[in-house]
Amino acid sequence: MTLSQWRSQWTGNTRADILSGLVVALALIPEAIAFSIIAGVDPKVGLYASFMIATVTALFGGRPGMISAATAATAVLMGTLVRQHGLDYLLAASILAGVIQMIAGALNLGTVMRFVSKSVMTGFVNALAILIFMAQWPELDPSKVPPITYALVIAGLAIIYLLPRVFRAIPSPLIAILVLSAVTIGLGLDEVHTVADMGALPDQLPSLLIPDIPFTFETLQIILPYSVAVAVVGLLESLMTQNIVDEMTDTRSDRKQECYGQGIANVCSGFIGGMAGCAMIGQSVINVTSGGRTRLSTLTAGVALLIFCVVLGEWVGRIPMPALVAIMIMVSIGTFSWASIGQLRTMPMSSNVVMLATVAFVVVTHNLAIGVLVGVLLSGIFFAGKIAQMTEITSRLNETHNLRTYYIKGQVFFATVEEFNRAFDFQEKLERVVIDLTHAHIWDISSVAALDRAVGKFRLAGTEVKVVGMNHATETIIDKLSNGGQVAAGH
């Protein structure tokens, strides 16, 4: 990256980046506390992690303007480790997860995102929107919150959606926070839940520490499964979010660099007492819709979060939760692909099944990796089915020479082997058989075995066989996998 390119990722949108970063920082506080509770650790673990991860990814990440911090996706994986072995093991697992992510970057594993279909992406986005909305329910439960909460949430949504029509100098979510805070403090609405009710904010800066664990192979056996899970889920959510922000901003970013950035951030987080995290689609959408575009917005969010907690903790603690709920409802509405509902009538059934299955598995399991994995597997199955339908096998008999030529067209692989086997008539009395692969491609061991079988059965019947028209790739795989050189000897 040249100096001018690096500068462009920091400057040119300074005012909007700083303001959007402030909005994100305020919205991060209750979420970081909530994720700490999910992981079973003190709130400061999530808050320190969010500060460090946002700051480091601003410097080293591959997607300017994307927000990374402590997340529910990684927090849910850590609860068991914390309960069984304690906080220090979580910190060690976070550091190891970061190392694994950096190795993934070195191996350029980010390229696997090419195999995630549009239907899976849409399902991922819709599922996250639903989860974000569901996460607000504790602050909307009528048995837990006073009636005034609903009026404040509605007022917050009105400010967020209506104010930009007449005033855009300051992001409307930030104004909603300021106005609702002034109203609740001015009117003495002490019954309204505030940020301070979520948990105590840290009152000092984080310090460098080394996890107090035995450096043994047994320790590695304990933390490695958690580290691998966190690394995979974290990269998956980060790269998916990166794609979404790319589309929202009509720009391209570096997946390999993002793997490095996420890994470095998690390593640094573990060394200051924070847990591992990843990109956050909700906060990233807030940042982008509030005008954030460059690395400065992400850096502002991270630094402001720490300042708000340590220096302005008393005031930040008085921010009413309805203001932040309103912002997250805006995020869920803006994140959901409403066009996908109308497209259910026009899109192919296979695409609809993939999208709906992704949504269902993510929402039910609250595990993004499982939902995306199911979607990718279904996409692969449907794709294989479509390719299999395009395979065509015909034949022509030359009675003069008692010769039948079989013409194979299309892709021959495991899904087309059954049709391939049925295409040959081994009972027909022939002197010669030609299998023409000019317009075909052999892909795997299943198809090689099927071709081997056909050649072998014809020879057992006393028929001379010749395989012609193989392209270089087909010939290579046949020579490598053919059983005893059956096919190779017949061409």
From TrEMBL:
Q: Where in the cell is it found?
A: Membrane
Membrane-spanning residues: 21-39, 45-61, 89-109, 116-135, 147-163, 170-189, 222-242, 263-286, 298-316, 323-341, 353-383
According to its UniProt entry, this protein's organism is Thioclava marina
Which residues are in the STAS domain? 393-491
List, alphabetically, the InterPro entries matched. Answer: Membrane-Transporter-like, SLC26A/SulP_dom, STAS_dom, STAS_dom_sf
Q: Does the keyword Cytoplasm apply?
A: no
Query: Which named protein is this?
Result: Sodium-independent anion transporter
Keyword annotations from UniProtKB, A to Z: Membrane, Transmembrane, Transmembrane helix
